[in-house]
Amino acid sequence: TATQSVLTMSNVEVVYDKVFLAIKGVSLEVGQGQMVALLGGNGAGKSTTLKTISGLLAPERGEVTRGQVHFMGEDLAPLGPSQRVDRGLVHVLEGRRIFGHLTPEDNLLAAFSLKSDRRRYQQLRDQVYTYFPRLKERARTKAGYLSGGEQQMLAIGRALMTEPQLLMLDEPSLGLAPVLVEEIFSIIREINANEGVSVLLVEQNAAAALEIAHHAYLVENGHIVMTGEADVLRQNPDVQEFYLGGA
Ligand code: ATP
């Protein structure tokens, strides 16, 4: 492609418990400024793919990765998870792991690493509040009391505090009412368009993801079974039947 790639994965395999192949030769690419969706059902291998990229798999637990992952041209293999965050790669885990006993603002502060740079902190925090005004309105509420949608907003906001080049989102729509999914997805689209942040979006909700993504990969049983422009995939009869509920 003409656009420079931010992330390239080639022939990645992941083994759990030394014997189980969870992903079987996955290759994918995220171009600069692109929003790429990784779609598939339960257990297809989507979360495993993201964990491979963010460095959350642990060889000492028998979780072994083969193949190559490059981020901005750099081989990620020698880098630990926090070094990857420093490089601009951030992973919002499935299930929104926010600090429930802290306020939204303290959650944002906890995710900001240059504690001495108060001005930069305020700029980033205000940017998060611009995208998610609801978080500002709920500033005095402990995050554990926020609604599911608000917690998802906070999880994304925390990721933005690290000034990512690549934002990886694991099922941001999970458990949310359709109107909220629409709201959050349109904000993700805005962040991608306005901030130049590339996005890798993992979803079971293919219909919603294909509306905002530029490009998509379909994963089944640890393999990429189809890839293409989101608009083209939406018109594909097999995609319509198996991913879009026969729409
Ligand atoms: P989900 O949306 O349910 O998370 P997924 O597409 O993200 O689905 P993965 O979580 O990547 O799928 O799981 C891929 C396969 O690996 C599944 O068969 C799953 O049971 C298995 N698996 C996931 N995590 C582990 C683990 N820690 N140990 C052993 N097997 C695992």
Automatic annotation (TrEMBL):
<protein>
    <submittedName>
        <fullName>Branched-chain amino acid transport system ATP-binding protein</fullName>
    </submittedName>
</protein>
<keyword id="KW-0029">Amino-acid transport</keyword>
<dbReference type="GO" id="GO:0015807">
    <property type="term" value="P:L-amino acid transport"/>
</dbReference>
<dbReference type="GO" id="GO:0015658">
    <property type="term" value="F:branched-chain amino acid transmembrane transporter activity"/>
</dbReference>
<dbReference type="Pfam" id="PF00005">
    <property type="entry name" value="ABC_tran"/>
</dbReference>
<dbReference type="GO" id="GO:0016887">
    <property type="term" value="F:ATP hydrolysis activity"/>
</dbReference>
<dbReference type="InterPro" id="IPR003439">
    <property type="entry name" value="ABC_transporter-like_ATP-bd"/>
</dbReference>
<dbReference type="InterPro" id="IPR003593">
    <property type="entry name" value="AAA+_ATPase"/>
</dbReference>
<keyword id="KW-0067">ATP-binding</keyword>
<keyword id="KW-0547">Nucleotide-binding</keyword>
<dbReference type="InterPro" id="IPR017871">
    <property type="entry name" value="ABC_transporter-like_CS"/>
</dbReference>
<dbReference type="InterPro" id="IPR027417">
    <property type="entry name" value="P-loop_NTPase"/>
</dbReference>
<keyword id="KW-0813">Transport</keyword>
<feature type="domain" description="ABC transporter">
    <location>
        <begin position="7"/>
        <end position="246"/>
    </location>
</feature>
<comment type="similarity">
    <text>Belongs to the ABC transporter superfamily.</text>
</comment>
<dbReference type="GO" id="GO:0005524">
    <property type="term" value="F:ATP binding"/>
</dbReference>
<dbReference type="InterPro" id="IPR052156">
    <property type="entry name" value="BCAA_Transport_ATP-bd_LivF"/>
</dbReference>
